[in-house]
Amino acid sequence: MSPAQLGVLCFRRNVPGADEDEIAQVNGALVQRYGASGDGLVSSTRLRGVYAIRLCVMNHTSTENDVRKVLDWFVQAPLPAPAAEPQAAAAPVPASAPSQTDPIADGWLGPPQIEPERLAALAVFEGVPAGQLARIASWGRELRVPAGEAVVRRWQAARDFFVIVEGSATADRDGELLRELAAGDFFGEIAALDWGAGYGYARSATVTAATPLRLLALGPADLGLLMRDVPAVAKRIERARRERMGR
C-alpha cells in the first residue's frame, strides 16, 4: 500500500467485493489472529484514511525469509467470517446481566448515568435494540460541560470517545472551524480506536461547547465492545473516521 521505507512495510489482504468497512474488519481480525499465533507481531495504521497492516522489522537477526513467512501467512490465512448484523427479533439483554467476556461486569459502578431511552433518540444509535442500548449506557459515564469550555484540545493524548446527548459544540483546528456538532453527533473516535494499536494519534481538533453539553463518554475498551457487538454503529463510526482522517 506504500513503498517500503527502512524496516517498515504497509500492506493488507484483499477481499474481493467487500467495502472498506468490511476490509478493515477482516484485516483487523487477521492482525489479532496472527499475534495470538505466537509467530510474530504486526500492528496497524491508516494510510490516507484507510486501514493498513504495518510490518516493522526490528530484530537484527530477521532475514528475508522471516518477512516472506509473515506475508505468506496473511495471503494463506482463512478469511474470518463477517460479523452478523443484529437481528431485530433477538432477545434483549437485561441491563443487569453480567457478560461472560466483558471486563468486570456491565454497570458495575451502579445504574447507567444516561437513560437508555435517551440514547435511542440519537442518530448514531438508530436501530439498536433496547437491550443493547442499556448495556451501552452502563459502559459509559455522563459528562456535563458548560458553554465556552473545551471538551478536548488539539494535541491532547486523552483517548475517550464522546457522543453528544444534549447541546451543541464546534470543532476547530488552529482557529479554523471544521464543523458544528449537535445532539447525536460524536467525536474522539480517531484517538480512541487507535489506542493500543501499536501507535497512537493525538487529538486532531479542539472541540468546544457552544451551549451547555451533556455527553456520553466511553473509554477505548468500551468503544471496542460497542463496535464489536453493534456492527451498524461500528460502520457509522468507521465511516466518520475515514472522512475526518482524509481531511
What does this molecule look like?
The protein has 247 residues and is α+β, with helices and mostly antiparallel strands. It has two domains: 8-76, Alpha-Beta Complex (Aspartate Aminotransferase, domain 1), CATH 3.90.1150.10; 116-246, Jelly Rolls (Sandwich), CATH 2.60.120.10. 31% of the residues lie in helices and 21% in strands. The chain contains seven helices and eleven strands. The strands form three sheets. It has a four-stranded antiparallel β-sheet with strand order 4-11-6-9. Helix 6 crosses helix 7 (231-246). The protein starts with 7 loop residues before the first strand and ends with a helix. 27% of the residues are buried.
Task: Please sum up the structure shown.
The chain has helices at 20-37, 64-76, 116-120, 130-139, 189-193, 220-229, 231-246; strands spanning 8-11, 43-47, 50-56, 141-145, 150-152, 161-166, 169-173, 176-181, 186-187, 206-209, 213-218. By secondary structure, it is α+β, with helices and mostly antiparallel strands. Helices cover 31% and strands 21% of the residues.
